[in-house]
Amino acid sequence: MKIILALIAFGFIIFIHELGHFYFAKRAGVTIHEFSIGMGPKLYQKTKNGTLYALRLFPIGGYVAMEGEDEESNDPNSFGKKTIGQRLLSIIAGPLANIILCILLLIPVHMLLGVQTTTFEQVLPNSAAQSAGLKRNDKILAINGKNINSFDQLSQTTTLNKGKEMTIKYQRNSEIKTTKLKPKMLNGKYMIGIKPKMEKSYIKAPIKAIESTYNTSKAMLEFLWKLITGQMSKSIVNNLAGPVGVVGMFSKAASDGIIYFMYLTAIISLNIGIFNLLPIPALDGWRILILLIEAIRGGKKLPAKIEGAINGGGLMVLLALMIFITYKDILRLFK
C-alpha cells in the first residue's frame, strides 16, 4: 500500500509539471500530439480532440509532445510558429507549477505543525545558549542590535555571523535582558542550541510556506553548485537518490504520517521544479535560455535540427545518469 501511495505521489508531481506545459501550450493554440505521464509501455490511453492522453508503466517522467517543438513545421499551430512570449510561458509553466505545488502543500503542513517562533521551547544541554544563561520561554528580540522577528531570521543571522561572539537581547517574562554567546558548530552549521516553540497560525502559515520554499530553493542551488564544482564530499554524492530511492523515501514518509508525506511531496516537487530550470540540454532551463537568446537576436531562431540534436544529446546523457543513479538505488536496497 505504501509503495502504491509513493508511486501515486511521484506520478502526481510529474502530472502537475506536464500539466503546466500542456495548459499554456493549449491556451496558445499549439497542436499537441500526446500528453503522457510516465515512460515505457502504455497502461492506459485515450484520444480526445486529436491529442493522445497516455499513462505509461514507469513513473520516472512524462512529456507533452507538441508539433514543431524539435523540428521544422509549416503548421500554423506548431510550437515554433508561436510568439517568443507564448513559447516561453509554455516552457516555464512546468517548473513553476512544481514550485507553486510545493507552496500549496507546505501551507497545511505549517498549519498543522505550527510556525517556529523566537521563543525557546527548550535550551539544549552543553549548548552556547545554556552557557550564556538563556532558559526555556526566553524570547530573542535582537542580535547585535538588529531586530529578530522570525526563527528563520534568527537562524540566518547566526549562520552569517560565522561563529563570532554575538550580543543577544532577549525577554524573560516582562524583563528585557542582554547576554553574549558564541555559536557552536554542529553538523557543518553554526547553532546557538535551542529548540523553538511552535505557534499555530492560519495567517502566518502561507507566509511561512513561501519563506520555506525560498530558503529550500537557495539551499538546493548551493548544493548543486558544490556538486558541479566538486566541493561536495564523496559520501554525499554516493547517497544521491533516483526514482527508486525517492519511492523508498515516500514509503517511509507514509509510515511517519500524512504531514511528513505531504512535506516530502512538497520538497520533491520543488526539487523537480528547480532542477528543470537549470540551463542543461533537454531540460526546460535550456529551452528558456534558447528563447531568451532568440529574443536578444531579434527573433532569429537557432535551426530546429541543431536544437533538436542538442536536446537529443542532452536527453541521452540525462537518461544514462538516471540509469546509473537507479542502479545505485537498487544496490542500496539489497544492502
From TrEMBL:
Taxonomy, superkingdom: Bacteria
Family annotation (CDD domains): cpPDZ_EcRseP-like, S2P-M50_PDZ_RseP-like
Transmembrane segment boundaries: 88-107, 258-278, 309-327
Membrane topology per record: Multi-pass membrane protein
Keywords tagged on the record: Hydrolase, Membrane, Metal-binding, Metalloprotease, Protease, Transmembrane, Transmembrane helix, Zinc
UniProt cofactor(s): Zn(2+)
Enzyme class: hydrolase
Compartments, as annotated in UniProt: Membrane
Domain PDZ: start-end pairs: 103-174
GO molecular function, one term: metallopeptidase activity
EC numbers on record: 3.4.24.-
Family label: Belongs to the peptidase M50B family.
NCBIfam families in the record: RIP metalloprotease RseP
Protein name: Zinc metalloprotease
Source organism of this protein record: Peptostreptococcus equinus
Gene transcribed to yield this protein: rseP
